[in-house]
Design a protein that fits this description.
8% strand; 7-stranded beta/alpha barrel; globular; alpha/beta; immunoglobulin/albumin-binding domain-like; 50% helix; 10 strands
Length: 533
């Protein structure tokens, strides 16, 4: 008998990286790696579960930048070329490792993996992963939701309600344009919540969202059921909280499953291990070393030389860790159901890219978890949060506390000495965008002026992405983050000044539209602040 529920939520997001002005671009590899190692494997999991008629539910949040990139024909064609390069490299590796049988066995594994990825992407999905995900939404195993337009960090954009409203509404509009229906749930970027945000979510048609554990644990009044039941924010919008126990088992650097010694080591890649003369043709410019996805070693143990990866040992650990995860969820639900007056729900949210990209075996672990949960002897039922709200309609009313799932639980990762300089620039651009919309919304504008105004709104949204502040704090790809942020603001400033002074260059506006072609249906008039009566 099922004693409670498990809702596994995967959040898939990457910053918008599209550079048609260059034949190759380093950061586009972020998307290509995620497609190969995460998104196609995740679709494979769903297809096998469907084929075997395994009853299960999974929630996937797709961010608007990721949706836009997956649908982009230029990036689709570049991804195919990327796979062809990987296949050529795998063939070359099979020859190079002919006197190293352990490595050659893995090189052949990678050739099969890349061939299967190419066949899936090109033939089964016709380069349209969004349609493939929509299919699984329609069959009932997947609930698709979305997030803010460019993953803006909403508490720090809240100097302007218009900025937050547009991040929410434009994100939802992008999702609807690609999938044909409105999402019922909303992933707050970085799980970042501030009291009052539920008002804008309600206006956008959102039924529920997620916060970190302390967002509900420190709610007012205190929650009756801790993090194991949602809270009604007072307007019918529900807040679900992350379960700390299930998160720790997967996320913890010291205790989490991905750190097991038999799993594949992410940080040993032939793109860095082999001579530049050999690997040069398969990296960006023949000089800049990047991950190729071909990795021959396993995590091993502390202070030990890295051992060669053994898929058989990894498969055994997948089974063991899936059984451990489900056993602990069953123990949790047994204890919780004895104390609660309603069935408890365990919400387990993760970054989707953990599964396959950072943790190569992650998709197979996820599949094993879903299969185990489906067994009649298991007291766990997997569902989505909208399923829960359909079954259980009475909820405690309380105000969640301000919170994020970042380091220390609040906003310090996105506002500190490494990135605080960006916010005055963002606030200034937002105010100027709102004034443009207020001053010009009712005037007879030329087609070029309208295009420039809409493009200015795109540039503003792209500058507001939380990714840039995150990268600056994490001290990874710092130069790229600074350049992207300053480029988007420079484009906004050019358009703003050109509109104000009536000195727009159509060729330059067209070039910006080609480079940043996200949100084709955007309307600058949405940046008019609400009239206060």
């Amino acid at each position: 008998m099922k004693q409670g529920f498990l809702s596994i939520v995967l959040h898939a997001h990457l910053p918008y990286v599209r550079h048609p002005e260059h034949p190759h671009f380093f950061e586009e590899n972020w998307l290509f790696e995620a497609i190969t190692e995460c998104y196609i494997p995740l679709l494979g999991v769903l297809e096998r579960l469907q084929q075997d008629q395994i009853p299960c539910r999974l929630t996937l949040s797709l961010s608007p930048p990721l949706i836009s990139m997956l649908a982009d024909e230029l990036l689709q064609s570049r991804y195919l070329a990327h796979l062809q390069r990987l296949l050529a490299l795998a063939e070359k590796e099979i020859i190079r490792t002919r006197k190293q049988p352990e490595l050659q066995k893995l090189a052949r594994l990678y050739r099969r993996f890349f061939k299967a990825s190419l066949a899936s992407y090109q033939q089964r999905y016709q380069s349209d992963l969004l349609a493939a995900f929509k299919h699984h939404q329609q069959t009932g195993r997947l609930e698709l939701i979305t997030t803010a337009a460019t993953h803006g960090f909403l508490p720090l954009l809240n100097t302007s309600e218009t900025a937050v409203r547009n991040q929410i509404n434009i994100g939802i509009d992008c999702f609807k344009a690609h999938f044909g229906f409105a999402p019922q749930g909303f992933w707050l970027p970085e799980c970042a919540y501030y009291p009052g945000l539920e008002t804008l979510l309600k206006a956008a048609g959102v039924g529920y969202f997620f916060v970190d554990s302390h967002g509900i644990g420190q709610a007012t009044p205190p929650p009756v059921n801790s993090v194991y039941a949602p809270l009604d924010c007072g307007n019918g919008v529900l807040a679900f909280a992350r379960d700390p126990m299930s998160s720790k088992q997967v996320w913890s650097a010291s205790e989490g499953y991905p750190g097991d010694g038999d799993y594949r080591e992410y940080y040993r890649d032939i793109g860095f291990d082999l001579d530049l003369d050999y690997i040069g043709p398969y990296i960006l410019d023949g000089e800049t070393r990047i991950n190729t996805g071909i990795k021959y070693y396993r995590v091993t143990g502390n202070d030990q030389p890295k051992a060669v990866y053994n898929p058989r040992l990894a498969r055994a650990k997948i089974k063991q860790h899936a059984e451990d995860f489900i056993a602990k969820r069953q123990q949790q639900l047994t204890a919780l159901s004895a104390k609660m007056a309603r069935p408890p729900i365990i919400v387990a949210p993760y970054d989707a890219e953990l599964f396959g990209h950072w943790w190569f075996e992650g998709p197979y672990w996820l599949e094993a978890v879903l299969r185990l949960a489906s067994q009649a002897t298991c007291n766990v039922e997997t569902l989505s949060c909208i399923d829960y709200l359909t079954r259980i309609t009475q909820h405690q009313i309380a105000q969640p506390s301000a919170s994020t799932w970042g380091d220390q639980g609040y906003s310090s990762y996105w506002l500190n000495e490494t990135n605080d300089w960006i916010y005055p620039l963002l606030y200034k651009a937002e105010a100027e965008m709102e004034k443009l919309a207020t001053d010009l919304h009712s005037l007879a504008l030329s087609p070029l002026q309208k295009r420039a105004l809409n493009q200015a709104a795109r540039s503003l949204l792209l500058a507001q992405a939380s990714d840039w502040a995150f990268i600056l704090k994490a001290d990874t790809n710092v130069n790229y983050a600074k350049k992207q942020l300053t480029d988007h603001l420079a484009r906004f400033n050019y358009l703003h000044d050109g509109i104000r002074k009536n000195r727009l260059d159509e060729r330059y506006v067209s070039a910006l539209e080609i480079m940043d072609n996200i949100f084709p249906d955007i309307d600058f008039r949405d940046y008019r602040p609400p009239i206060i009566r």
